[in-house]
Amino acid sequence: MLEPISVSLESLNLGTLAPMLVAICGGLGILIIDLIKRDLDKTMYVMLSVLVLFVDLGTVLGLQAGERGFFDVMFIDGIAILSQIIILAASMLFIPLALTSKRFHEFSYPEFFGLFLFMVAGFQFMVATDNLILIFVGLETASLALYTLIAMHNREKSFEAAIKYFIMGALAAGFYVMGALILYALTGSVEIYKIEEVLIAGDYANLTILLVGIAFMIGALGFKLSMVPFHTWTPDVYEGASAALAGYMSVVPKIAGFVVAMRIFEFLIQSDVVWLRDILYVAVVLTMTLANIMALVQHDVKRMLAFSSISHAGFVMAAIMIGTTQANSALFLYWILFLFTNLGAFAMLWVSRHKESRWHERYDHPYEKFSGMIQIMPVGAVVMALFMLSLAGVPPFSLFWGKLYLMSAAVNSDYIVLALIMAINSAISAYYYLKLIVYMFLKSPEENEGTVYMRNASKPLQTIIGFSVFLTVFAVIAVEPMMDIITAYVQASGF
Q: What's the confidence (pLDDT) of residue 374?
């Protein structure tokens, strides 16, 4: 007779699941409250969501690095804790934007907040495991919620954006499953650390089959990280989504993708699998350069920021290709600084959002709309200019330090040419960022009512933009202590 299998709660280590359970229970709680009492004011749901995110952050900070849990599929290391902190910080910055204006009707639906918390839980699952199946579950949970959030903006462009994102996401999911299947067939495991052990023990004997599996993985993560040539959906989806959600999408899904890429690719790079390094090198250079060139010819500021965020993702992928502790620490520093600056820049577009495309038939945010903004809304023009200078990497603003640390990591690993390409791309990007500043400060206002920029400048929005401006301008004070904390977390992960 077979002995029953006994599993003790202690060995399950359910504490590793606690952050995701908080987010999932929060989302379900909001939906249940709506079932019991309909038509509650959206401020109630905003406060509940922020509270859930705060509790979630508290549980993440209470985790110990180096733990495994829930049948060993959960893996909590320094990288998992650090990336969850970034995901939750960005989410806490985004949710209060729901208090901006009554005209953005998606925020009046409780389902919006429930789906948002499910999406956050999905991203947390992606970063807090090294099990290929659970990464996939997290990826699909987050993606399906995000498609719906985009469509809830309820404009023709939003439906188009959601459908494009859904189709591309489905293709990426297929690529990921195929890659995971090949890795499983090759090694007999879906745990990344066991895959690494089997490949090293076999001295990378089946390199051709491994190349096919990794090619599928590069394709899947390339879609999620908008790497060239998998980037084509990005500007259209950002254009269709609300400005604030586009800013959020440019940061949070990508940090989850970077962590997965780090776990899958870096052990191969450190084992001197040369072809993977060469493929990533080409992808990084193409992503940085082509996205910059495409941003130069955009007529719409939102599309320009979309291409710019693709270029920044290329910068950060360079850190994964380099694969040293210094490079990985620089990756997280860069993305934290980028979080505040980019979310701030997209939020400034949110300030000037209105229902009718009164400036241009095709675009909501053409450059002409910002002509003479310094005369109509001086503070807004100065704030937007600060964000543009930071994105361009002008010292002493925040992203200058991110680029400096990334380039120094490249130079220290003898990637001199790569560091030069990064510097040249920063110089190219300065042109299209400065183009917006020229329109705002040196051109006369277009004939239109002057109040158009002030439509959504509510107190929550002003507070979040103010916070982003403060961190963009005074990042120099925080860079050293942040780098020390990040390096400690990265070293605790063994990267």
A: 86
